[in-house]
Specification:
about 130 residues, mainly alpha, 2 helices, rod-shaped
Length: about 130
């Protein structure tokens, strides 16, 4: 009877140990799943951040730096620039000519006015002599 109790106690102890081992294995598996889930979430977050950073960097570079041109496009831009420069030169020349003409007309009018004043003063001086 005593032997039977010991044998039955061993079986119960063995069952408890197997239960503990099963729980430990399940706990380890659950922790591995948690680690795996956290790792996947972290990788997804880093990937999302990396992609959004690349998009932001690409948008910033695109806004600041001009896009490279094809050779035909460069020739077209140079031609347009040349036309604009020629137009600006012509407008500047016309403006300078208008300004110069206005200045010359003002100087002539002032000179004529001064000449009339001087002639009037000379006539008065001659009349007093």
């Amino acid at each position: 009877n005593n032997n039977h109790n010991q044998h039955s106690g061993r079986r119960a102890s063995s069952a408890v140990e197997e239960d503990d081992v099963a729980r430990a294995v399940a706990l380890i598996a659950a922790k591995r799943e948690q680690v795996r889930a956290r790792t996947m979430l972290a990788l997804f977050s880093v990937s999302l951040l990396w992609c959004s950073s690349l998009s932001a960097a690409d948008a910033l570079v695109g806004a600041v730096l001009p896009m490279p041109h094809r050779p035909a496009s460069v020739a077209s831009v140079l031609n347009d620039t040349f036309v604009l420069v020629r137009r600006a030169e012509d407008e500047y020349s016309a403006c300078a000519e208008r300004q110069s003409s206005g200045c010359i007309a003002t100087v002539r009018a002032s000179a004529d006015s001064e000449a009339r004043r001087a002639a009037g003063a000379e006539a008065r001086n001659n009349a007093t002599l």
